Amino acid sequence: MAGISRRQVLFGGGALMGAGLVPGVNLISSAFGEEMPRPAYMIRAGTNENPWGPSRLAIQAINRSLHLSNQYGGDRRRLLGLVAGINDVSSDHVALGTGSGEILKTAALIATLNRGSIVCADPTYHDLIRYAERAGAEIIRVPVDDGLRTDLNAMRRAIRADTRCVYLVNPNNPIPSIIEKNALREFVLEVSQDRMVFIDEAYFEFVEDPDYATMMDLVRDGHQNIIVARTASKIHGLAGLRIGFGFAHPDLITEINNRKTGNINVLGLDAAYASYQDEEFQKFTLRKNKESLAIVEGMHKELGHRYVKSKANFTFFETGRDVREVNAAFRKEGIIVGRPFPPMLDWLRVSMAKPDEIRYFVQTYKKLYA
Ligand SMILES: Cc1ncc(COP(=O)(O)O)c(C=O)c1O
Fold first, then answer.
1. Exposure of 324 by Cβ count < 10 A (0-12 exposed, 13-18 middle, 19+ buried)?
2. Domain range annotation of the chain
3. I need a surface site. Which of 126, 130, 179, 324 has the fewest CB within 10 A?
4. Cβ distance 33 to 298 under 8 Å?
5. CB half-sphere exposure, 164, CA atoms < 13 A
6. Which CATH class is domain 6-57+279-369?
7. What is the distance between the alpha carbons of residues 47 and 202, in angstroms, rounded to a whole number?
């Protein structure tokens, strides 16, 4: 890394380096309002990754640990201790997963083995639900309300005696809305009396809204049936290294650990250990995410789109067209956008790429559809 500044790494890294381009040669928006050219690489705006990550400190840690790749595992306890400390719980309240996806699937497995149904919002993130459904669980999908918010009252009504898990994603995905914190707390405390409540907080770090709160304090307070999931894949930009966390009562953590099937690797562990201490990088990502969101939400206002103001690192809006066609059209223009999210098949999810990449997305959207 000698001779390359943090700024160069941040601005020239990630997809550009992956595409074999020289750091610093970027997609630059025209100062004269001319059309931006199609970039020489595919812009990734389809899977809610961090376009700036991993952080410089994480990359340094990976470089230092590469020679340990002959070893199984790595120092789990060090990362568990760090992340437990950040969240003010003891390490026995935390399970490490190969991404939070492993924690989601393990919870799905536990609910399914207990021969139960699972209640979730519709639409919401698919991992836990799809896994449980394929394992034989019945999924009770509760449509979001008219404001496209998770409908807690309707979920309450949908819960049955055999419901073993209620899955809440907050902020939700693909709809980047949040659940109001007081209503959520009341719901979680009530519903977790008789079943597991899983709160997926993959986008927790992006939210800046006084109506939002993590439910981590309920885990801290010793409640038995509550799992909070977090991930190193989003704000930390480590999606490819598969590190995620479940926070719960130690008995539930033991049950999760007994059912998990994945194996963590040393590079993921050491990169996450560095990244969770790199506050500067997280702040930088947040700032850039807001910049990109402002650009795309400006387009929504200009074109009169129906959309939900984003609390996360993606936007979701009504195009009025089949999303598969929209997706294919954008691929031809050099941009990967979100897949279909039934039942909202004429809405499009776009992940926040770098600001200039999002400017190019807006230019392309207007060219194709405005
Ligand atoms: C809401 C939500 N939860 C969990 C995940 C899984 O993330 P990972 O397995 O990379 O931690 C994602 C990924 O997109 C997500 O959107």
1. exposed
2. 6-57+279-369, 58-275
3. 324
4. no
5. 16
6. alpha beta
7. 13
Which atom of ligand 1 is least distant from the CA of 244?
11
Strand partners of residue 307: 317
Residues in contact with ligand 1 by the CB-under-6-Å rule are 48, 99-101, 125, 127, 169, 173, 200, 202, 231, 233, 239, 244
Residues 6+ apart with CB under 8 A from 279: none
Query: Taking phi first (over 0 means left), then psi (-120 to 50 degrees means alpha), and beta for anything else, what does residue 136 get?
Result: left
Which atom of ligand 1 sits closest to the CA of residue 125?
Answer: 1
Per-residue pLDDT of the chain (370 residues; tens, 9 = 90+): 333 333 333 333 333 333 323 333 457 676 667 899 999 999 999 999 999 989 999 999 999 999 999 999 889 999 999 999 999 999 999 999 999 999 999 999 999 998 889 999 999 999 999 999 999 999 999 999 999 999 999 999 999 999 999 999 999 999 999 999 999 999 999 999 999 999 999 999 999 999 999 999 999 999 999 999 999 999 999 999 999 999 999 999 999 999 999 999 999 999 999 999 999 999 999 999 999 999 999 999 999 999 999 999 999 999 999 999 999 999 999 999 999 999 999 999 999 999 999 999 999 999 999 9
* DSSP symbol at 53: P
Q: List strands edge to edge, sheet with 117-122.
A: 94-97, 244-247, 226-231, 196-200, 163-169, 117-122, 138-143
Q: Whose CA is nearest to atom 8 of ligand 1?
A: 99
- 231 CA distance to ligand 1 middle (Å): 7
Residue with tokens 């003010």: 88
Q: Look at domain 58-275 and name its CATH class.
A: alpha beta
